[in-house]
Amino acid sequence: RTLDSLGSLTGKRVLVRCDLNVPLKDGVITDDGRVRASLATINALVTQGARVILLSHLGRPDGAPDPQYSLEPVALRLSELLGKPVAFAGDTVGVSARETVDSLADGDVALLENLRFNAAETSKNEDERASFAAQLAEFGDAFVSDGFGVVHRKQASVYELASALPSAAGLLIAAELDVLEKLTENPARPYTVVLGGSKVSDKLGVIGHLLPKVDTLLIGGGMLFTFLAAQGFRVGGSLLESDQIDTVKGYLAEAKERGIRIVLPTDVVVASKFGADAEHTITSAESIEETPFGQTGLGLDIGPETGAEFARIIAESKTVFWNGPMGVFELAPFAEGTRAVAEALTRVDGLGVVGGGDSAAAVRALGFSDDQFGHISTGGGASLEFLEGKRLPGLEVLGW
Ligand code: 3PG
């Protein structure tokens, strides 16, 4: 169900679930990509004269108000980008939200406070979620689901709310699916997936499902050390999920059997500590504990030899999907692996997709512009689960 299916929305109160989960540092947005990606739908509704009520989560607060996760800075940024005021409600279903919604005129925009300040949003209990969704639904005449980054979550504002009001997918979701379907339906080959990032156990689960679909899998980021450990290498103080080593061994065996390449780093950057001022050195993947930092050395990036090899494989691919930075790109000494992958992705002769908030933030922080890539997806976990072929609750409920 697309936006048009809702008919005329002039004068109607339209709840829009966005994914405005942006990175913040000291209250300042460090990458506003998700805010900008939300503008198309918001503008389309404003132009129609709808009363637009935006909903989002930010981070993972504990189900109670927590000022460090307030969406207020996002309301300010939205207002700058839209060129009009965005009213901000200091709660989600309380007095402030009610007053804010009631004060809207046709074409006005409001943002309610972080949905995850209410524990019912992410509750495992369906009834709790449904009753929170029913409270939200009182503020609207229609619902537009446009937070692509969160469609893999069965949460009140993503799933139950869509059944509580006439609902449709927004323009961002439609645009994301247009591109991602190209990756699932007959991708041009060779098809390479590059995985990195720090949410290690999340990503490890994905690999089993992706293996049968791709030609080559490149492994960087935090999870690479679990792969190295599975090969019997010692990884010093690097991130390691010991309980996943057997699973990873299974993936390596399966890949071998199926003739799929899993390419692991041959060198890494090892540091004395976690920090931009850490001493660091490049070493081979087998000798992480043989640097001057011994058993406490931390692997914080793939090494230059690996970066060059990954870049070569990416440049020779016709379809590439990349999720997750190769190293701690926020710290200059550990950004080169991510830069090498990003740079190669801009040269793909085919479709090169950057997936996820962190990877998108990384390429922008490293000075690349969005138009250098085939597509930058706003969804990390969501795009990966889509590529795995999983049914995503937030799409299923809309009939997609
Ligand atoms: C994301 O950053 O991937 C989305 O905003 C979803 O956030 P979550 O992983 O905290 O549900």
Q: Return the structural class.
A: alpha/beta
Strand order of the largest sheet: 5-6-4-1-7-8
Spell out which ligands are present.
3-phosphoglyceric acid
The CATH topology name of the largest domain reads Rossmann fold
Radius of gyration from the alpha-carbon trace, in angstroms: 22 Å
Shape: globular
Q: Which band does the percent of strand residues land in?
A: 15-25%
Count every helix, treating DSSP H or I runs of 4 or more residues as helices: 15
What is the CATH class name of the largest domain?
Alpha Beta
Question: How many domain regions?
Answer: 2
What CATH architecture label of the largest domain applies?
3-Layer(aba) Sandwich
Terminal Cα span: 7 Å
Task: Give a quick account of the main beta sheet: strands, pairing sense, barrel closure.
Answer: 6 strands, parallel
Average pLDDT works out at 96
> CATH H level of the largest domain: which superfamily?
Phosphoglycerate kinase, N-terminal domain
InterPro entries: Phosphoglycerate_kinase (IPR001576), Phosphoglycerate_kinase_CS (IPR015911), Phosphoglycerate_kinase_N (IPR015824), Phosphoglycerate_kinase_sf (IPR036043)
Binding site for (2R)-3-phosphoglycerate: 34, 116, 153
GO molecular function: ADP binding; ATP binding; phosphoglycerate kinase activity
Keywords: ATP-binding, Cytoplasm, Glycolysis, Kinase, Nucleotide-binding, Transferase
